[in-house]
Specification:
The chain is built from 9 helices and 8 strands. It is of the alpha/beta class. The longest helix has 19 residues. The two termini are about 25 Å apart.
Length: about 300
């Protein structure tokens, strides 16, 4: 679209410090569909969004190159495509799609980290653990990406779940087998506060040997703030809590890639959920600039 990512787009990857792609796939969503339309909607809305953060700071140090969409429901093929995408030197943003896309994105991230000698870490910000081995007869459901990550080689101690408040019985049993996997429920976030949670993560992952992938499911936000999602879950985090969490995370730890998933424009009201995702992303850009990670 003309003027996509208003005043932030560049024409070649060599000019960029932020790389964007979309995976418009929602066939693996179990309840409400429509997340396949999110990459298109987010890009369209971005043309109307000034390159400034919520307090007026200039974001034009952000130089975005958009790779377009990877359109494939074969996760092996998607992983291959994403391995190439993640080779760029900069910050990487992947628009879903339902959360099953993380099966491919996290595999590609794992492979990249192994190639460069880093320990791969997943920070999973979500209402749901997504650690089912199989859901509704499928191992590729959006309820399964964390289990698939464990299968692929991620270590328990290098996966942290945040904002959780909706569980399947099989997931409770899985947690008993993976005791080093950290789970911070939405209640824990309320009690600890975002700053304390970030300090816990810094103590665990601040060493330069770690590289982090942020997987942000919009339903981590309470549905009062984010109604346009396929599996809304009550008693969630506020917009400010999620925004503060992701911005502090990217500024204080080595986060090099993230996804933004489960935004469903067809289930939304006046695009407020899409706007939430987009505005939060721009706050992430601001945080990266302030931390001198975007120059």
């Amino acid at each position: 679209m003309e003027n996509e990512f208003r005043d932030l787009m560049v024409e070649t990857p060599n000019e960029a410090n932020v790389f964007v792609c979309g995976i418009p796939l929602d066939k693996n969503a179990s309840v409400g569909k429509g997340a396949r339309f999110a990459p298109k909607t987010l890009r369209e809305l971005s043309s109307d969004l000034p390159p400034l953060d919520r307090v007026g700071a200039d974001l034009r140090k952000t130089k975005i190159f958009d790779y377009g969409d990877f359109i494939d429901d074969n996760f092996d093929k998607l992983t291959w495509d994403l391995q190439g995408f993640l080779k760029n030197d900069g910050f990487h943003v992947i628009f879903g799609g339902d959360h099953s896309i993380a099966i491919a994105t996290e595999r590609a991230f794992f492979d990249k980290c192994k190639l460069i000698g880093k320990i791969p870490v997943i920070i999973h910000l979500d209402a749901h653990p997504d650690i089912c081995d199989e859901y509704l007869g499928s191992k590729f459901s959006h309820a399964c990406p964390i289990h698939r990550a464990l299968d692929y080689g991620f270590k328990d101690e290098n996966i942290t779940l945040v904002g959780i408040r909706g569980f399947e019985a099989q997931e409770i049993e899985t947690f008993k087998k993976h005791t080093k996997l950290d789970v911070f429920k939405a209640d824990d976030v309320k009690q600890l506060g975002v700053n304390t949670l970030i300090e816990i993560l810094k103590k665990k992952y601040s060493d330069e040997k770690y590289e982090l992938y942020l997987s942000y499911d919009i339903d981590a936000n309470d549905p009062a703030y984010a109604p346009g999602t396929g599996t809304p879950e009550a008693f969630g985090m506020t917009n400010f809590e999620t925004m503060e969490f992701v911005t502090k995370l990217v500024s204080e730890l080595n986060v090099t890639a993230m996804d933004l998933v489960e935004i469903s424009p067809t289930l939304d009201v006046n695009n407020i959920t899409s706007w939430l995702g987009l505005k939060t992303l721009y706050e992430i850009f601001s945080s990266l600039i302030k931390a001198n990670k975007i120059k």
